[in-house]
Amino acid sequence: MKLSDLAEILPVESAASGERIVEGITSDSRAVCPGFVFAALRGGKSDGMAFAPDAAARGAIAVIAALDADAPGLGIPVLKSADPRRALALAAARFHGRQPETMVAVTGTSGKTSVAVFVRQIWARAGMQAASVGTTGVVAPGRTEYGSLTTPDPVALHALLAELADAGVTHCSMEASSHGLDQRRLDGVRLAAGAFTNLGRDHMDYHPTIEDYHRAKMRLFEDLLPKGAPAVIFADDAWSQPTIDAAAKAGLDVRTVGRKGTFLTLKRVEHERRRQRAEIEAEGTIHEILLPLAGDFQISNALVAAGLAISTGVPAGDALRALEHLEGAPGRLDLVGSTGAGAPVYVDYAHKPEALENVLSSVRPFTTGRVVVVFGCGGDRDRGKRPIMGEIATRLADVVIVTDDNPRSEVPAEIRAEILTAAPGAIEIGDRREAIRKGVGMLAGGDTLIVAGKGHEEGQTVGTVTHHFSDHEEVRNALAELAR
Ligand SMILES: CC(=O)N[C@H]1[C@@H](OP(=O)(O)OP(=O)(O)OC[C@H]2O[C@@H](n3ccc(=O)[nH]c3=O)[C@H](O)[C@@H]2O)O[C@H](CO)[C@@H](O)[C@@H]1O[C@H](C)C(=O)N[C@@H](C)C(=O)N[C@H](CCC(=O)O)C(=O)O
Ligand SMILES: Nc1ncnc2c1ncn2[C@@H]1O[C@H](COP(=O)(O)OP(=O)(O)OP(=O)(O)O)[C@@H](O)[C@H]1O
Ligand SMILES: N[C@H](CCC[C@H](N)C(=O)O)C(=O)O
Ligand SMILES: [Mg+2]
After folding, report:
1. What is the mean pLDDT of residues 128-133?
2. Which of 104, 127, 362, 423 is the most exposed place for a label (fewest CB within 10 A)?
3. Which domain holds residue 133?
4. d(CA 283, CA 264)
5. Looking at the CA of 213, which ligand is closest?
């Protein structure tokens, strides 16, 4: 690609530099190699423009910068944009070129990972070459990789999408986090359809108000999906209506799913311990489905996923039948094992209030004894959620064990103390391994243990060091010890 190929996105004026070959694009000066375009972004910590001289010294051929950026004497063209993050995303898409033909994205506070992996499974069952990209990583035919970000930065994202397309993937589902949407990480993705699950308290350290948080999510419908594209919206959430309004105003084809949904209507649901039977109406026909997953919320996620699959060409009957074969995303109400007396132990990724509320409520109907929960809250993240989660745990569980979950740069005992202000009577055990042992050790027949907050994670971050830690492994070890 030549620099002049970016002319639709950026003011590439000088003909001489326009002929230069672009060897790569990055927003990190440390990754610049000769021939790269460097995007100088203003971030939470620093202004990328401060690193432009370094990028130029490493051989950058142009810098993408804000309109008001001050760029004296860099010796390379400065391409100014009113929205440098968007320009970077569009440039990365142009540079890497190929993407799977059918891309869909799902946003919402909870359920994104589940929906993305469900859509992949439904497509795959319908015979498509399908992939999913999100919090738990990348899964595609012959490829499974552990992830880090929910929505990768645009440079990594477009490199990945090009690789997937080259490997023959035609259908790809991805998660659109509010950070990702706000930071324009998805702006270069050619989306065929989008979806919304729900909205609750999250990332209040990043978004000033919940309205601002909702607005960031609405970029998916307002700015990213082409007019007329299907927008699959879960209908039974408090934020469903404002979302439907935003999607309709943006000229999208709104398709609601859920009890109040009209595209897929949930008529009836009967919960069993590890599965649920649902009657779903689609195009005037009632389908009875046995969903092999625990948790009320999984029905909602399955409906959103089916809505996306149908909206991208899977016949409704096939999509709904495929729900009978769904496997949950790793670490989402994941049954790891049971004690000798039959008390189940689940690992779940609930690390925000509504998720914790949902998961604890979901297991109550099948618990004849006590619901025991082990959880903590992450450091360097929204502090406001700590007492809220303490209150929810105290209200919905019989035994609450408060422990550590990635304290990062904070003092772990202070995080626990903030949770404990609203969790009187809770047991405090900082060491997560000990906390899990304690939880497992106290289980009697009829009890249920939920180890919440880390789900698929494989590390515990203390300070800047991430130690290997897996709730799955710890639960398995504790159960094995008990059996000895
Ligand atoms: C808070 C946040 O979202 N930060 C993201 C943001 O960083 P930033 O712009 O604030 O970075 P900064 O440190 O101020 O630096 C500004 C710029 O200078 C550049 N720089 C910096 C140093 C240097 O030597 N040279 C250089 O060029 C940086 O690369 C950056 O472009 O933009 C970066 C580039 O896209 C992201 O990598 C980074 O994500 C960090 C890694 C992160 O942890 N993000 C998390 C919070 C996140 O995005 N999570 C969401 C949601 C998860 C969920 O739903 O729960 C996700 O999608 O994963
Ligand atoms: N539809 C839903 N409604 C409420 N809670 C849910 C829903 N789906 C999942 N959860 C809860 O949220 C947790 C995370 O689910 P999932 O990973 O699918 O969501 P996510 O939106 O991708 O979350 P994150 O933004 O943290 O990656 C689950 O472990 C469960 O506790
Ligand atoms: N993507 C989320 C995951 C949080 C998971 C929880 N284990 C924590 O560390 O708070 C975040 O980084 O805020
Ligand atoms: Mg996720």
Report:
1. 98
2. 127
3. 97-325
4. 8
5. 1
